[in-house]
Amino acid sequence: MKTIYKKLLFLLLLLPFSILAQNTLSGTVLDKSSGQPIPGVNVNVQGSTNGVSTDFDGKFQLPNAKKGSKIVFSFIGYKNTVINYDGQKSVTVSLEEDANQLSEVVIQVGYGTVKKKDATGAVTVLTSKDFNKGPVTSADQMIQGKVAGLQIINGGGSPGVDPVIRIRSGSSLSASNDPLYVIDGVPVASGGVEGGKNPLGTINQNNIESISVLKDASATAIYGSRASNGVIIITTKKGKSGELQVSYNGNLQVSEITSKVDALSSTQFKDFVAANGNAAQQALVGTADTDWQDEIYRTAIGTDHNIALSGGTDNVVYRASVGYANLNGILKRDNMERSTLGANVTGNFFDKHLKIEINNNTSLIKSNYSTNGAIGGAVSFDPSQPVKNADGTYFQWYKQGDEGDEINSLAGVNPVSQIEQQNNYGSFYRSIGNIQFDYKLHFFPELKAVANFGYDQMSGRGYGDNALDYRNGLSGSGYGNTYENIESRDNKLMDLYLNYNKKVDAIDTQFDVTGGYTYQDFKESKNKSSYNVERGVTNVELSTPTRINLQSFFARTNITIADKYLLTLSYRRDGTSRFTEDFRWSNFPAVAVGWKLNEENFLKDVASISTLKLRGGWGITGQQNIGNSYPSIPLYLASNSSAQYQLGDTYYTTYRPEAYNSNLKWEQTTTANVGVDFGLFNNRFTGSVDAYQRTTKDLLLYTYNPSFFGFSNQDNYNIGTIDNKGLELAAEVIPVRNENFQWTVGGNVTFQNSEITKLTTTQDNTPGITDVGGIDGGTGNYIQSHQVGYAPSSFFVYEQAYGADGKPLEGVFIDRNKDGIINSDDKYRFHKPAADVFYAFNTSISYKNWDMGMNWRGSWGNYNYNNIDSNKGVYNSVLTRSTDLSNGVANLLETGFVNSDNFQLHSDYYVQDASFIRLDNVSVGYTFNQKENATSLVKLTLAAQNILVITNYDGLDPEISGGIDKNLYPRPITFTLGLNVNF
Q: Euclidean distance between the first and final Cα of the chain, in Å?
């Protein structure tokens, strides 16, 4: 008995020590590749129920940890990590992505989701770790150069400017080639309104969780009439359960111009006029030395801030954010001020049978549109003249009239006065939101009913005036004139559909069936007015509100057999109010198949093959977006106040018939796509290959009417066919990966070709359409054409003749048809603006707390028409009149051309190779070590954008949408210092 008492006493003495041996382990869990914290990671003591989860900042505190225990860290999409607990107070754990689990990640597609490993279409998904770093202000800048087949060309260097976005080039000649944008389940209207800028810039980039790019018809056909040019699905961030979390993202940007148009310097200009001008022109030369481009550009500073709050319970989670950006452009007075509000609430009720999700993204943008005409004016204005006269007025060109100085209406305007004395403002409001109900039937849980109600509202106001002393307030100068343009667009959406998802174990087959109805209504109204101070006249432009209605029935079936064989079938029937009843509805089917070879027995045990999937798809998509809301209906247009007809003392409104084509119908695009997705060596090397062929028939083309036909010179017709084909390659490799260091290299390349194969309904070969691509110089000149057998918008030019010294001979061209006469019959198609190949390359390195990224982008086979040289590179561009002088560019000294006539403007000499390689972005970041038990995270990032361009192109910038270089707002180099704080 004494022995038992002694043992019990001994155990009682040991009990305090055993309690002391149970400690609290604190730490942080990070993503190994990006160094970012991971919320929601499970932290458990192996073999027990003791466990916690990391918070929003990846922090955790695990109580009652015993020495010798094994601590397991697990999270979906990552490999489990196990550490031994030896009494340490804190740890930092880095989780590595698990390629096999990542295949289970779902991706957004039309009216639902699909597992990445089961996708049969050409779809690319980008998340925060894939986005471009640095001074991005919109969704398009986040993914530029990241997706094969997706080309994004910035509209210039102005903050918030519209980009040109093309997925697999374009399928139309006159109709829209923009992709469909779907934001949190709402297909939004393309384009903006008065006073607005880039529509994608209305979504704060800090609120975007993922962007899915749907490229082939099997993926996009479920959107039918809207999807001929691909679909971009933007999903914003949602809340997570847990305590309130706050994050801040902010940056400071500094932008500088790096290159200017090679206008003649003041010295070159004075020497040129002295050598070539007449006495009157030489007398006009001033004594100043003004670089007008230096006078209109500046160092621009901008800031961008965003604060987000998130949290919630097991049933209801929320996230809200506010953002403010104030970005200056390098052109003086150019400014964009953007305020954004984002909110999301998601609730799960009735044992998670009912899910209700509410999303809203609202923005208010105020802009100061500095006069872009000053960009071209700074190139052509006389550099020997001062910015201001001795009396403080702006220098301008005048002519002597009967009553003294008069405006020289043919002369250029002082570009600084254009910026300082012309005011152009804009205010723009946009709100995109939806509420979605997702109900799994209690008595039939495999069946889900979804109702989605959304809206997209835009309103804008563009307004401005000229200062009263503009051009010294002289008659005809436009001094004091004002204008105001108001526009609003209202888009309402209703989606109703059912989804059935069940696996039939008896045949080892998964069925996912969706069917439903969608209704979308677009309303637009405009009001425009202007006031002429000198005449005291107000002009109001009449505008009738318009409405477009789209309605659709759709169905899709996804079948997965034995987790190896995949089949997707979809069908959509679309109706549009744009066409008459006979042509209103059209059908858009699609089919796709997939084969997961890595699941087959003959490859399942091959360790080097992680993923291998073959894909093939075919489908039809439609197009009806031609700008005109009523192209098929006979309408009459009422005259405005300046075009009324007077009878006696009464003025009557007149009406004229509008052009229409009652036989207009859907443009249809048929696409076939084959592809392969692969992952090798535990997905250290991943990639995809896609080949596609696309044919668009019944092109919606705005072209000339036959003589004595119709109510206008031009109208919309279904004429022609375009063939597109291409090859897309994308890959990513991780050469080095260990506990402290990871190096990732990725890239993509796209080969593409477009050809017009038909331009009439009866003939294979036609003269073509030559009024394409308007240029400066002369009156009504065009430089491009559409012609059967050639790419759209091919340059249509004369072949320049050259001398023995290699210089072009003015006015001498090749007689290509050898008839002894140089005329329009000698013009030919010479190159095109679209690239044969475009590509991107990126690399990232992370070492402990440091990370670095670099992105390159380029194209090959694209050509530009250098309209700066053709219009301002001749003697007569400087010595036009004896009453004023203009400046020219250095090209006039190289060629010695005197005149810029119709022949010279259309010389192939000005069609230049615009292939380029651009270092788009470099960023370096550092994540600071946190103190023990700290709940915050701090990261600093330094980035530069548009750092280097390698090209043989003679113009300012080779990257120009449409291929005509005439007045580009220069893209600056931008340096950014960013701060991210989570607490």
A: 59
In this prediction, residue 11 carries a pLDDT of: 41
Half-sphere exposure of 604 (CA within 13 A, CB side): 5
Percent of the chain scored above 70 by pLDDT?
Answer: 93
* Pairing of the two strands 231-236 and 180-183: parallel
Which of 746, 747, 748 lies closest to 727, judged by CA? 748
Q: Which two tokens stand for residue 175?
A: 């109709």
Q: In sequence order, which residues have a C-beta less than 8 Å from that of residue 169 and are 6 or more positions away?
A: 151, 724, 726, 752, 754, 834
d(CA 60, CA 933): 8
Could you tell me if 925 and 941 are in contact, meaning their C-beta atoms sit under 8 angstroms apart? yes
* pTM for the whole structure: 0.87
- In one-letter notation, the amino acid at residue 192 is G
The sign of the dihedral angle between the CA atoms of 657, 659, 665, 668 is negative
Residue 21 confidence (pLDDT): 45
What distances in angstroms separate CA 41 from CA 64, 418, 611, 791, one per listed residue? 18, 58, 26, 53
Contact 145, 322 (CB under 8 A): no
Q: Is the pLDDT of residue 647 over 90?
A: no
Mean pLDDT lowest among 255-259, 638-642, 807-811:
638-642
326-361 b/e with 16+ CB inside 10 Å = b?
Answer: bbbbbbbbbbbbbebbbbbbbebeeeeeebebebbb
Question: Cβ distance 89 to 65 under 8 Å?
Answer: no
Half-sphere exposure of 432 (CA within 13 A, CB side): 23
Residue tagged 């205010």 (tokens): 427
Show the tokens assigned to 968. Answer: 């580009």
CA gap 662, 668 in Å, rounded: 18
How confident is the model over 407-415, as a mean pLDDT?
91
Task: Give the DSSP letter string of 846-884.
Answer: EETTEEEEEEEEEEES-EEEEHHHHHHSSHHHHSS-SS-
Amino acid at 929: N
- The backbone torsions φ and ψ at residue 786, rounded to the nearest 5 degrees and listed phi first, read -105, 125
Instruction: Provide the pLDDT for residue 4.
Output: 46
Predicted confidence band of residue 287 (pLDDT cuts 50, 70, 90): very high
**What is the model's pLDDT at position 761?**
59
- Residue 325 has a CB neighbour count (10 Å cut-off) of 25
Mean pLDDT confidence for 679-684 = 91
Tell me whether residue 105 is exposed, middle or buried, using C-beta atoms within 10 angstroms of its C-beta: 0 to 12, 13 to 18, 19 or more. middle
pLDDT in tens, 565-592: 999 999 999 999 999 999 999 999 999 9
SS3 state of residue 798: strand
Confidence at residue 24, expressed as pLDDT on a 0 to 100 scale: 84
Give pLDDT tens digits for 65-77. 888 888 988 876 6
Give the separation between CA 216 and CA 236, rounded to whole angstroms. Answer: 24
More confident site: 117 or 246: 246
Query: What pLDDT score was predicted for residue 895?
Result: 94
* DSSP string covering 698-766: S-EEEEEPPTT-SSSSEEEEE--EEEEEEEEEEEEEEEEE-SSEEEEEEEEEEEEEEEEEESSSS-S--
Tokens of 914: 């615009």
Structure tokens at 431: 């709100």
Paired with 541 in beta bridges are 528
The amino acid at residue 666 is W
* 310 φ, ψ (degrees, to nearest 5): -150, 160
Does 525 or 604 have the greater pLDDT score?
525
